[in-house]
């Protein structure tokens, strides 16, 4: 299924979520990041850690955390993004949900979804979900969740974001290329149009390498 498209300068919300779990310690973490378009600014970002949580349960809890963070926002269009094929397909009704524990979580998510009549689900590979993945991985490592408030920490998550490469606005009948570096470029007074693609990628790689140093040594069981 092709990713949703957005209109140029369309104001909408994008909610990305992720979940991770350890097999031996039987602990799991999950995260959610709420983005505001067209600026791709972070409205809210949070992670949590829970004992006795499977990977799929962690993914569903990440989705439920999205709805929790969305609760006080305007009920416009929202795109819900995750790298769990199982959760996305079950929420779309494409496959059955047979596990009792997941049935309860899915039911809760469907109830929350009723408050958002204009919604879409997007399944993506893990590499496109790096912002939520970083939050969940850090929570799993530290066995403690957190609410991301500091501007520097939010900028780190914005650097990891690649969703803007999937959700591309229409412009004059063609898809316009949007990159996360444009936001950072505005911050350092550069004009977005003169930034070359190789500079964009170099900047992103440097920031991602720095952030991933915090997660070295993780032993994570994941389900895609």
TrEMBL record:
CDD domains: RNase_HI_like (cd09279). Residues 17-138 form the RNase H type-1 domain. Pfam families: RVT_3. GO terms for molecular function: nucleic acid binding; RNA-DNA hybrid ribonuclease activity. Coiled coil: none annotated. PANTHER family: POLYNUCLEOTIDYL TRANSFERASE, RIBONUCLEASE H-LIKE SUPERFAMILY PROTEIN (PTHR46387), RIBONUCLEASE HI (PTHR46387:SF2). This is RNase H type-1 domain-containing protein. It comes from Peronospora matthiolae. The lineage of its organism: Eukaryota, Sar, Stramenopiles, Oomycota, Peronosporomycetes.
